[in-house]
Amino acid sequence: MSNDISQEKYEKLKEEINFHNYRYHVLDQPVISDAQFDKLLVALREIETLHPEWITSDSPTQRAGIIPLSKFEKVEHPLPVLSLANAFDWEGVIAWRDRLLRINPAVANAQFVVEPKIDGLTVVLHYQNGMFVKGATRGNGEVGEDITSNIRTIRSIPLRIPVGGKNIHVPDYLVVRGEVFITLSDFDSLNKKIIENGEKAYLNPRNTAAGSLRQLDPAITAKRPLRLYAYNILTSSGEVPKTQWKVLEYLKLLGFSVSEYSERCEDIQKVLKLSEIWQTRRDKIDFEVDGIVIKIDDLELDKNLGIVGKDPRGSIALKFPAREEVTKLVDIGVNVGRTGVITPYAILEPVEIGGVVVRQATLHNFDYIFEKDIRIGDRIFVKRAGDVIPYVIGPVIDARDGSEKPFVIPEYCPACGSHIEQMSGEVAWYCMNAACPAQLVRNLEYFVSRSAMDIVGMGVKIVEQLVEEKLLGDVADIYHLTMDSLINLEGFGKKKAENLLEAIENSKQRPLNRLITALGINGVGEVMASELAKKYTNLDELSCASMDELLTIDGIGPNIANQIVEWFNQERNKQILSKLKEVGVWPQITKSEKTIEKDMPLEGKVFVVTGTLERFSRTEIKEVIESLGGKTSSSVSKNTDFILVGESPGSKFDKARELGIKILNEEEFIKMTNLS
Ligand code: IVH
């Protein structure tokens, strides 16, 4: 960098960084990529090295982090919540170690702990006499926001430590630091649900986690799949482990989740090997990492090395190259979903992002295109993280040459040519033609899927082929397929046709809950379908159910009740049902099944399960309880009869105790039900 940089330029750069900090941390609406932000910060640091006399307290380098939001109470942290210095390549790590060696030669023999740098949000958790009493965001490192009620809703944060009454010493006062995040798979399912409901999809896991933590209503936070990995003890009134590795082990023992990918390395060469493993590992794991954190294991040595600004010298973040690239938006296409939702996607000039060639990326919804002012022909930022569909971050406005064309929402469905419409109060646009072939394909795909009718061998390619050949006009037509209709199709031989027909025949035996799921009623997934199958004996009964009656069922609100009633009222669906009945796809819950239930040992008892059980998965325990006549509920209320408690129970355990509900451990449950 040249020495003649002007102070005016420096001020501008500071302002720019502060602006991006605010967009990112306060508004959760970043306009530049993390990599670009890092570059700005590096440039600022370089200027400050040349002109330390210019540095003022408002420089982003003096205050790494965020401005507390005014809507929450402020919390003064007991000790500064520090940040990390960055290295962008291995040379940077070696330079860091060399600096440390000059400060303290003992570093030569130091061991390291390498942890994933989770792309989430720091939280600070206060425990008094083992009870969780306060939770705060990092804020500016000195003062954060009190988000205790929101934190309480996160299942992986213990409300009491040690979890499970283990005999481990816990200091009277303990403050733990960790990162709240959303896994990529949870994020994906959340967005699928949201899009199906015609709402606006979330942008990315990190921003969703940030927004969720800062909700004023904890009930909203509770609905988001937030998790925590703990990695640090900020302060404590008593003895705590003396190495980072032991801190992680201790936190795990207390009942916190600790990343299984944290590893101890006996020397810097091992750290190098591990950092190479991380280059591919980062794509395989279910949460976003933006780097690895390399920490001196010996905490005494770490303390001794001191702090520069807000960064402890003893740790460094080795940032991964961003999984973000700029490419040309060649066109915008639209997809039609199962419920007719039309979603736009970007057709890209192929671009390699971290070893994978990306040709398409999601644009979430039409509003998103206009909000970000994305135009066809633009150069755009595209991000790819793990297996999540790549998405468009936004355009590079400066790269425009005037040839870019604003996107116009199509008037007609690309698959069937019907008018598309926006439902009032929703972001999504819909193809209103229930017979639209694209919707039909998605519907059939869902009908035959594993959690529904489970017709093995009927993948999407075959579904598309059968729709194209006009052999399937609705889901009931599956049961009219014959050897004659299949045998001459391209790719079909006798054996393949026989197998498919056999799988179709077998699917007639699926129980009622599976068929209800398969119908694909908006808002009725597997869980809801099971609830409905408990109350109704067959689809005739369910189709006559009134709104009022449906509203008495656990978990059904006015929205879903209305969707169910509407679905059964539609002429086209009535026809499908009568066709299904005709071909014998009409499961019944028999009288005898109901009578047997009467003799069940758990008849009428409501169970809530919390924590991890040894013998049963969540689905299994639910099935066991229900098969013995009991019911399971996800929340504790005065109607709960028993709480079944496993390892690391959540807040339900505390609530159950408060309400004086009978507590069972797994062994007691097994005895009570004679399962052993
Ligand atoms: S250690 C003194 N470890 O990265 C302790 N930070 O860029 C300093 N982060 O603000 C932090 N994973 O929010 C640490 N395993 C990890 C982390 C981690 C994610 C975040 C943290 C911090 C930011 C610094």
CA distance, first residue to last residue: 74 Å
The gross shape turns out to be: globular
**Ligand types:** 2-(butylsulfanyl)adenosine
Largest sheet: 7 strands, antiparallel
- The CATH homologous superfamily of the largest domain is named DNA ligase/mRNA capping enzyme
Whole-number average pLDDT?
88
Spatial extent as radius of gyration: 29 Å
CATH topology grouping of the largest domain: D-amino Acid Aminotransferase, Chain A, domain 1
Number of domains: 6
Weakly predicted, low-confidence segments: 64-69, 594-598
Percent strand = 15-25%
Task: Describe this structure as you would to a colleague.
The chain is an alpha+beta fold. It folds into six domains: 7-62, Helix Hairpins; 86-319, 2-Layer Sandwich (D-amino Acid Aminotransferase, Chain A, domain 1); 323-406, Nucleic acid-binding proteins (OB fold (Dihydrolipoamide Acetyltransferase, E2P)); 437-507, 5' to 3' exonuclease, C-terminal subdomain (DNA polymerase, domain 1, Orthogonal Bundle), CATH 1.10.150.20; 512-589, 5' to 3' exonuclease, C-terminal subdomain (DNA polymerase, domain 1, Orthogonal Bundle), CATH 1.10.150.20; 597-672, BRCT domain (Rossmann fold, 3-Layer(aba) Sandwich), CATH 3.40.50. 37% of the residues lie in helices and 21% in strands. The strands form seven sheets. Strands 14, 15, 16, 18, 19, 21 and 22 form a seven-stranded antiparallel beta sheet that branches. Helix 24 links the parallel strand 25 and strand 26. Helix 1 runs antiparallel to helix 2, helix 12 (437-448) packs across helix 13 and helix 12 (437-448) runs antiparallel to helix 16 (512-519). The longest helix is centred in the first third of the chain and has 20 residues, at 7-26. The N and C termini lie far apart (74 Å). Bound molecules: 2-(butylsulfanyl)adenosine (IVH). The site of 2-(butylsulfanyl)adenosine has 14 residues, from strand 3, strand 8 and strand 13.
